[in-house]
Amino acid sequence: MMCNLQINGKAISAFPSTSILQAANKLGITIPTMCYMEGLPHSTSCMICVVEDINTGKLLPSCSAHVEEGMCIETDNARVREFRKDTLDLLLSEHIGDCQAPCQRVCPAFMNIPLMIRQIQQKDWPGAIRTVKKDIALPAVLGRICPAPCENGCNRRHHDEAVSICLLKRIVADIDLQQVEPFKPDGAADSGHRVAIVGAGPAGLSAAYYLAQSGHRCTLFDKHEQPGGNLCYAIPQDRLAKAVLDAEIAQIVLLGIELRMEHELGRHFQLSELRNEFDALVLATGDIDAACYATTELQSTARGLKVDRQTFATNVTGVFAGGSLVSPSQMAVRAVGHGRTIAYSVDQYLKKQAIIGRPTRFSSLMGRLQDGEIEQFLQDASMSSRLAPTDGVETGFTEEEAVREAQRCLHCDCRKQESCKLRLYSDEYRAEQNRFKTGSRKAFERHVQHDLVIFEPGKCIKCGLCVEIAAAAGEKLGLTFINRGFDVRIAIPFNEALQRGLEKVAAECAAACPTAAISLRNQEETV
To answer: Contact, 244 vs 140, CB < 8 A?
Structure first.
């Protein structure tokens, strides 16, 4: 006999053997899961799939609870969301691993450095330049002049010296510029919006590069004869060859950006004119001339124009500002990062979305490395010392040298940054990693003996999917639960190596793992 029930106000009839999760799926209602996989026994371990039966007031695990006559289920009310957040907070309290590597976290442009380095290791130069230019519009320039704050965050420093990240970024960009057709990003259709950018230095060029990709027509105004700002007029040729700067600017202009050089703010045009002519305005002039802003409503401080530091929006609607104009700094990479964030904000403004600037995500932080942990990271890295270019820093790495230096990377990031369910749901439910933490954390472990996968037990949520997959495939050893209660963990029986435990279905286990406890070692996400 069929059971009649309601889920989120929608009526459905289902056999009594049907789980609430399966019934919801038939209605097109998505319930979050981490330990569930169709066709495998359910373990009801993660509890992220709870729903509320309004009739009884009970919270039920939808993956294992069966439908009953007259049920009235709600899958996403305040009580359910609070319970899911509690669940995530508990899981995160013992999660050992960083979503982003320290080098990426301290990069002013937030570039995905570990991904670029893995692509260099595989000599995937087209992939590497795509990764770099997702966040940095002038990588060949920065590869020559950047003081490399990212290298200060590199965990390799705890062993010998940081990976030479800046020079690796440089060769990726240099190789691209040498191509007959350098990398050109895909662009959206013309939005019909026009953006004025005052200042053709690193912040203005970066903002224009990314706004153009979003389909907005950009016009760059600058008082100088040539674009580039201080990159062109304040840096000596022996540090930054003009040919390199010109080549990278040409790739930016190629996206359809109009240059109006020798147009000085306050002399050839006023801000009020630009506001009338354009849909949004970006100020990146590098310095502030009080006379230019005296007749506007823009607010300034002793350090420059006053902006929201998250969005770089000024107090005037539709006007954004960045670079040295708002934060005096000699680091071009910081200005480039400002330009990237401004592009997010302006795009959101033009699309009438909430202006939040660069989207932020939940990011797990492992914290300072403990004694013995650097050795866990070093297992899969080259033990060579930091490599110096044979022909000197001015010349940079050869391709062979770049690959060798890239092999020193410890790959401290998560291999499933985009698809990790724990991170995705932590974002959605605003989870707090430190809410239930007590005392010192457990030590980080990394098992690298397997040819296909890496196993990091501290990221495991004990969902049991890998255990079931291995058992169903008839693995001789497989994986199993060790210990009981709070000390339970997943491991290879008899302390055998991972290679022995997963001889058949390592890739399948990596694909099913809801975190990156098991991840493919030489394959990047396609999400």
So the answer is: yes
